[in-house]
Amino acid sequence: MQIEEIRNKLPEKLFLNFSQKFSTLTPPQVKAVKAGLLDGKNILVCAPTASGKTFIAEMAMLKQILERGGKAIYTVPLKALATEKFNDFKARYESLGVKVALSIGDLDGADSYLGRYDLIICSNEKLDSLIRHYADWLSDVSIVVVDEVHLLNDISRGPTLEVLITMLRELLQAQIVALSATIGNPGELAKWLDAELVHDTWRSVKLYEGVNLQNEIDFFGKKEGYKVRGIARDPTLDLALDTMRVGKQALVFVGTKKSAESVAESLVHVLEKHKLAGERLEEEAKKILKALGHATKQCEKLASCVMSGVAFHHAGLAPAQRGVIEVAFKEGKIKIICCTPTLGLGLEFPTDRAIIRDLRRFSGSYTDWIPVLEMKQFTGRAGRPSYHTEGEAICIAKSEKEKEEILDRYINGVPEDIYSKLAVEPVLRVYILSLIAISFTKTRAKLSEFFEKTFWAHQYGDTGKIEMRLDKILDTLTKYKFITEKDGKLQATNLGARVSQLYIDPLTAHHLIKAIEKASLDTGHGRKLQEIGVMQAICDTSEMRPLIRMKQAEYEDLQEELLRVEDCLYTQNDFVDEGFLDSFKTALMFCDWLNEKGEEILLEKYQIRPGELLTKTSNADWLLYSFEQLALLLGKKDLLGEIAKIRVRLKYGAKEELLALLRFKNIGRVRSRLLFNAGIKDRRDVKESSLEKLAQVLKSKEIAKQLKEQVEVRTGTGKEPLDQSSL
Length: 727
Fold this sequence. Notes:
The chain is α/β, with parallel strands linked by helices. 48% of the residues lie in helices and 12% in strands. It contains 31 helices and 19 strands. The strands form 4 sheets. It has an 8-stranded mixed β-sheet with strand order 10-9-8-17-14-11-13-12, sandwiched between helices. Strands 3-4-2-5-6-1-7 form a 7-stranded parallel β-sheet, with helices on both faces. A two-stranded antiparallel ribbon has the order 15-16. Strand 8 and strand 9 form a beta hairpin. Helix 15 packs across helix 18, helix 20 crosses helix 25 and helix 21 packs across helix 25. The longest helix is centred in the last third of the chain and has 24 residues. The two termini are 55 Å apart.
């Protein structure tokens, strides 16, 4: 279909914008238009990566914005994906007068400023939070695009997405456009969404899927195979080397962070041994080393790999390091990224070849094949319309039998059906309280009616079983005093409404409330708030999982430490429960961080990488904020100042004695410690110290000058209480 054929369905300036870039629509786009995309109908697009799915959503969103004056929401599962879409849409459509916004941050606010924007890109969790905070601009939304909707099948992301879609369909009179990878039961999903199904296997860039066995690549007749040079005596490394030899780029998918690092290091070793490394990426390597302020062994390891045009990429890296790697890969400087499955989700990279080494994953006590749907996500990264005319996806086989299994299971296999994961009790607790708190469901009957509209009920249809679970959870929420029921009416208490806004499991809130009461009692008896007690309380929650696992050899040491600090804890101790001991070990890690143990020590002692530490400190800060907010609501104001101090210390990894210095810009824990050890302990000391002395202590005249300027701008003695509003 020529784009000229849909001219009358698009605003003129939108048509002109599109027609300058291309003249024809792809097969999935044609099907979507014929199915009523531009007439406001709900659409489910189920098609491979690189088939033009995103543009289908763009056509519908921009028509609604420009022609009908509505707002559009584009919701995605990952913050990184949201940021990528924001940059893309902003660059392409602000010239049309479309105001584009990104909302992925703080979960405790209605973000009223978003009412000034036309196209809002957000994470699923953020959109859920906006609904809980009564964002009034939501009533102006006329279209919602749900990207990666197949993640309904994901145990961690699926439940939020499912309830979110159900609420949006009830709250808004909006068109729903859902985008999905190829799945086994698209018809069932489309029926639940009350959507027209657009199902297509077309892909704009030809993808050849093959298997490498003993360095012989077989594309099974779709493309001529060939033999890879066996330089490294490792098929994964040899495939990566082959990719670099022909000037192309590859993602190497492995199962663990440790594997990603070891494969990257091994590849660099071979490159150096055979003098095959190309241009040295010195600038990128420097950025990697400076990302944390001071380089750890992992930073040095990564910088060494990047110098040779190779990187590893996983959640254990700092966000700044991941950013450097992604930009350098897009610019063609880094040729190979060895990565965990997280890079299989949606991000746009110039990947000529996807190399899939690990098709099995350890699950409890055994290894099992990963789902076909996940493997297809990996292969879909290869061959992107913006960069390529074809792509290759190559799996590694260890035997002829395994090669046949890969061919049957994955290359010729059909992706699995997706199933609702909503029936998990912690998830149900969260959303039942949320629905009551926003007065979405005011009776048990209305609550049941809502859940009868979920994908869960659509698939399983056992409404009696659903009602039994709902009744059990309602009783629990009543017991916790988060809701009341009078004359058949359900209503959230002030406490329950705040718990819902804080976006935590009601069971976590109940647990924190008990800890707050014990902590307040202890401080009332003249004891100082115990940091191990607070950190143990927040670590013993579902939100902090996965925890740092206790090793069997550590059991006695942990028991001994637990006995030593038992009187300082605010939770019920369980000396034999492994989950409790894991949470205690995690709390000890946080206490080490609060007492200025560096990332290197934490990596060695707890096997926690800098990126993982950042994620955990972010989660811990949110739980501490929740602890603080619940204490405020319960009238335990004696705890607020101490919790505020712990939150600042958690951000910087610093002892309490450095708080006065940490308030200065560009003075983190390292510089604060240098100043403190030199006898400069607060603002007054900074004011009275000469510029020369400060420069000598900080080893930087520029930083010393900035510090002096801050003292001159702000008044005070340096003894005033911590400003909690800045947290």
